Amino acid sequence: MPKLSLVVPVYKVQGYLPECLDSVLGQDCTDFEIIAVDDCSPDGSGAILDEYAKRDSRIHVIHLTENVGLGRARNAGLEKATGDYVLFLDSDDTLSDGALSAIRDRLDATDNPEILVFDYARTYWDGRVRPNLRADLLKQDGPDVFSLAERPKLLDLLQIVWNKAYRRDFVTRTGLTFPPGYYEDAPWTFCSLISAERIAVLDRVCVRYRQRREGGNILKTVSRKHFDVFDQYQRVFDFLDAHEELAEWRGPLFRKMADHYLTVLERPGRLPQDARAEFFHRASADYRARLPKGFTRPAGGRGHKYGMLERDAYTTMVSALAAVKFRQRVKTRTRTALNRSKRSAMGAFYQSQLRLPLDDNLVLFSAYWSRSVSCNPAAIDAELARLAPHMRRVWAVRAENAAQVPKGVRVVRVGSREYWAALARAKYLVNNVNFADSVVKREGQVHVQTHHGTPLKTMGLDQQRFPASTDMDFEKLLERCDRWDFSISANRFSTVIWERVYPCSYTTLETGYPRNDALVNATSEDVRAARAALGLADGAKAFLYMPTHREYQPGFTPPLDLARIADELGPDVTLLVRGHYFYGSSPHVAELRRTGRIVDVSGHARVEELYLAADALITDYSSAMFDYAVLDRPIISYVPDWDVYSAVRGTYFDLLQEPPGAVATTQAELLRLLASGEYDSRDTTERRDAFRRRFCEFDDGHAAERVVRRVFLGEESLLPIVPFDERPHAPTPAQSLELVERA
């Protein structure tokens, strides 16, 4: 049996769950088991648990068949625990390094107490860490082991279960279980502390308590479920009634009850407005029914509020809270005035348009900071024209790109009056990046964030760990992301990352990438047309080289001797080179293009056509690899600077260990792979198959249709994903040529 059992209830935490589990599995103490309880989570959390359990036998997964809530999920895990001690860890929190060793050593040093209380710290999205304000209560002064009567101030710690280790035989003997409903920690915490005869403390931060920016916290949820607090304290006092020997705790627990009721009343964002009076009267009834003889109210304003509860003086309480709200309103008005002054910079015209009604049939598209008409927004635009022709489609582009907009679609130049009018009036805004900070999200407007690639490199808040790669204002970033209503995901891997690094209240749509529909559904005619447009001869081999942006390089200097590559490959091979859009035109590439040794396709409007034309892809850290994998054609990773790139920018997996095909770290190695044909072997095909199943899982050719039906036509359920092995395959250039010859 292990020394420690960690019970981890899991519900809608796929963005945080891997970090939680990794923090446990990475501990230097290995004498533990994890009992992970999937509380019928509707996201990918259950699958993540299963993947971890396959890799580590210390993880035991329970999949509940219905959602039972946090308390009963913990009970299910508790029943399966076999360790000497039980700990509870919420699945969006993490353990600090060395936490389990410190807990085990302290348990041994104090001769296995019934409860060990340890410290925690709050962590925030912006990297702030705030210590427990009552950490002083965990100072190891006096005896190592004591009862609560000797240190009653421990009751003033936050009423949580996950900052303690409980001896399992003590839990069984006491009959402790978690009740259903909100505030389920209160009965367990109070009843365990007052029952224990031997308590110890550990003055060390063992848990990092994540303060989620959006969701995951009942304390930020407006609901009548906050009335559950009455049932929880009924359980506390029922426990006292059943244990006369614990009568001394009636006074202290009465005070905890009154404080808790007042907290629920005072904190905004908990009780619905029409339920506040009812809650107060119930709190007052409990107060009077449980008031201990000789009880002394606390001094000052808190004691005054106790008096209002005792008298059931709701009107007086409302007046007191109104005074607080008035002060808050003054602060809010000041902030609003500042915001208005900022918006005045947008111009009176935009403000006037914001006051006009939304146009329910108007859709505004933009892509890559309005640089082009492409990517997922363009694919959604085309499908919208097919399924909802009544919608009026508008593209926001820079003046030099207006010719890219499809015929029949309105064009608005970025910065023009028409542009600001469309931003203000369109019901739907679709983009693969964020709109400018100055754009106002109107009530009723729907923002669709399509993204523009599966991430290998760190994104969003994860970039805070790699300051050399960015000077981003992360608070501003999240304000922009707050405007999203839908986030389009190509795979579960991306879903988990987006939801963690952009922690806002959008809905994730796991549809696949609309831009990849063209790759799944392409015919031999499409392949031949793409090659003909590039002037590629029949039978000629074409390699598409697409390196990505490097923050530590000021311009596009390919890490390849392109002239030598072209010479070595010979006249029957064409090298297509596409630089990252951040770099613009490159004099280096332009010179090689003039010599005729390569074809510069950096300015080609549709990268999907380049994918169809190419026999193989050579890339490094670009998201192109995830899209090109849809075609099931060879991919060569040329990564001579992997150590530098992964250190400066950070990556989500080791490309050297999990590549989509062949890997080369030197130019000589790359030339050998290309010349010998080793880039397309049984081994590279197996790697590519595993890569495709992981990252192309939703790309079945119907992604754009899913988005249009869900977002614009209001269909609640998404079209089912076509099973991976049943999807159509676009022919390779060689296969498309064979089809022509047969015909």
Report mean pLDDT, rounded to a whole number: 90
User: Uncertain segments of ≥5 residues (pLDDT<50)?
Assistant: none
Tally the helices. 27
Give the overall shape, derived from the CA principal axes. Answer: globular
Membrane topology: Peripheral membrane protein
Keywords: Cell membrane, Membrane, Teichoic acid biosynthesis, Transferase
Protein name: Bifunctional glycosyltransferase/CDP-glycerol:glycerophosphate glycerophosphotransferase
InterPro entries: Glycerophosphate_synth, Glyco_trans_2-like, Nucleotide-diphossugar_trans, TagF_C, TagF_N, Teichoic_Acid_Biosynth
Overview of this protein structure:
It is found in: Cell membrane. Residues 5-112 form the Glycosyltransferase 2-like domain. The protein is an alpha/beta fold and 743 residues long. The chain is 39% helix and 15% strand. The chain is built from 27 helices and 22 strands. The strands form 3 sheets. Strands 1, 2, 3, 4, 5, 6, 7, 8 and 9 form a 9-stranded mixed beta sheet that branches. The longest helix is centred in the middle third of the chain and has 30 residues, at 314-343. It is globular, with a radius of gyration of 31 Å. It starts with a strand and ends with a helix.
